[in-house]
Specification:
Blueprint lengths: L2 H16 L8 H7 L6 H15 L2 E12 L6 E6 L4 E6 L1 H4 L11 E11 L4 E11 L4 H15 L17 E6 L4 H13 L4 E6 L7 H18 L6 E6 L13 H9 L4 E5 L7 H5 L2 E2 L3 H8 L3 H36 L3 H43 L3 H43 L1 H6 L4 E3 L17 E5 L4 E5 L6
Helix pairs in contact: 6-10, 7-8
Length: about 475
């Protein structure tokens, strides 16, 4: 019988047993009403099904305690009030959309399903969404991120880069259809139309806005590094709206991208009273998109007045310089003599120097030639050719003497060797064997000197002058 069968019969049997009855039932009837035995896992599974089928989604409010966020990305914590507490689990696909991280002691409100963790038989809540209790969740998330980034020093002025003195190419990251880009272009057209504007279009609100703003900042920096589009600064901007409308500029990914940007970043989000995380980490902030455009562009009318003043100063300096040059020229003309006289003197001086040079060269050549002859004579006197010939004659004579000495040595050694061979042959046992004697040995090689050392039947070897014999002792005579 399947699970559903015993579940139905089991519940029916339990209900019958719990109903009061006026008369006792027979043993067979009681045995038929006893439900089947459940394992612990089956009991927990049935309890979980009952809880999840009875409760839909519920909202629960309480205080966070025992918060844990393991490497899996899931969140586990307890939710408690003054009377009780309950375990909660929020899995990663759900918590990655939450804009803040719960902390112990934080009051939160959560939407959840009632369930039971079968492995430990624990009653728990499966959280689908959570927010701050009381104050708005967005404002709380804003304050939490602001506090964390401030502790990291990302708002410090020492970290921020100064804006370039003159912006020639400006990258604008905003919506292509919003009022912000219209205001920025209007101000730039009025103040400094020579600035080139490169629009990087992004959505400025919605779930995907923060990621696309981050990608646009990184893309602009990559283009600048690779030389595709050389930019002087970036403007991240949008028009006004509610905190929720501006939230993309309060996301941590946008703040990190602004901090990591090699290009100076100006942030202008919302109206003057609106302050975003992007404004705080940016190198400069514009109260509005128009104010940011004014911050990044010089007023062309001021530049024209400045250029006129510079032109007047330059003209005055040129006139003064020409007057001084004319006076100096007149003075030099009075002091200047005809160059013909100087040229004649220099030509005569040049001829004299040429003659001295020729004499010095001839003297130096004579000295070098005499030194060369002296060195050649000394070299010839010390030439190794004579010594080499003398050494060669000595070597030939020594070689002949060596050969004669070797011949005499070999002859004396041969004579002595023949004499020693005769002496050795005279005492050799082989000579005795030639006269008809034999050497008797045991199979182990021991020489038999005494007939008593062998017995009849022993095998002996007899070595003759030519060859050997194998003998068997038939009789001994001691």
């Amino acid at each position: 019988m399947g699970d559903s069968g015993w579940q139905r019969e089991g519940k029916h049997a339990i209900i019958n047993l719990l109903q009061p009855s006026g008369k006792p039932e027979s043993v067979s009837q009681q045995q038929s009403l006893v439900p089947p035995t459940l394992s612990v896992g089956q009991l927990n599974r049935e309890a979980r099904r009952l809880l999840e089928s009875h409760f839909g989604f519920v909202w629960v409010e309480g205080e966070v305690s025992n918060f844990a966020a393991p490497s899996s990305g899931h969140w586990y914590f307890s939710l408690k009030d003054g009377a009780a507490q309950v375990r909660c689990a929020m899995f990663r696909p759900r918590n990655q959309h939450i804009r803040f991280t719960p902390e112990n002691g934080m009051a939160i409100r959560l939407r959840c399903r009632v369930s039971l963790y079968e492995g430990r038989g624990e009653f728990q809540l499966i959280v689908e969404y959570l927010e701050h209790a009381g104050a708005g969740a967005l404002q709380a998330a804003f304050e939490q991120l602001k506090h964390r980034l401030q502790l990291e020093g990302l708002f410090d002025a020492e970290r921020k880069s100064p804006l370039p003195v003159q912006v020639k190419r400006l990258g604008v990251i905003t919506s292509p259809t919003g009022a912000a880009i219209h205001d920025v272009l209007t101000v730039l057209r009025r103040r400094c139309p020579s600035i080139e504007v490169f629009l990087l279009p992004v959505p400025v609100q919605g779930d995907s806005a923060a990621g696309e703003i981050r990608d646009a900042i990184e893309r602009a920096n990559r283009w600048h590094r690779e030389g595709k589009v050389k930019l002087d600064a970036l403007l991240v901007t949008r028009g006004g709206g509610s905190l929720e409308d501006l939230w993309a500029f309060n996301e941590e990914v946008v703040a990190r991208a602004i901090v990591a940007s090699e290009l100076p970043v100006v942030s202008a989000v919302g109206h003057e009273v609106d302050i975003s995380i992007a404004d705080m980490v940016a190198d400069s902030r514009g109260a509005t998109p128009s104010a940011a455009a004014e911050l990044l562009s010089p007023d062309q009318r001021e530049w024209l007045l400045r250029l006129q003043r510079i032109e007047q100063d330059l003209q005055r300096q040129v006139r003064n310089h020409l007057l001084r040059a004319n006076r100096e020229l007149a003075h030099l003309q009075q002091r200047l003599k005809h160059p013909g006289h100087l040229l004649r003197e220099q030509a005569q001086r040049l001829d004299e120097l040429e003659q001295r040079l020729h004499r010095a060269q001839r003297n130096q050549l004579r000295q070098h030639r005499a030194g060369l002859e002296l060195l050649a004579n000394r070299l010839a006197a010390r030439s190794p050719v004579v010594s080499i010939h003398r050494r060669q004659r000595d070597c030939s004579e020594l070689e002949q003497r060596l050969q004669r000495a070797m011949a005499r040595k070999v002859e004396r050694a041969s004579t002595r060797l023949a004499h020693l061979a005769q002496l050795l042959d005279s005492v050799s046992p082989l000579a005795t064997l030639q006269r008809g004697y034999a050497i008797i040995t045991t199979p182990e090689g021991r020489v038999v000197k005494d007939a008593s050392s062998v017995a009849p039947g022993d095998t002996l070897n007899a070595r003759l002058a030519q060859g050997s014999l194998s003998l068997t002792v038939r009789k001994t005579d001691t």
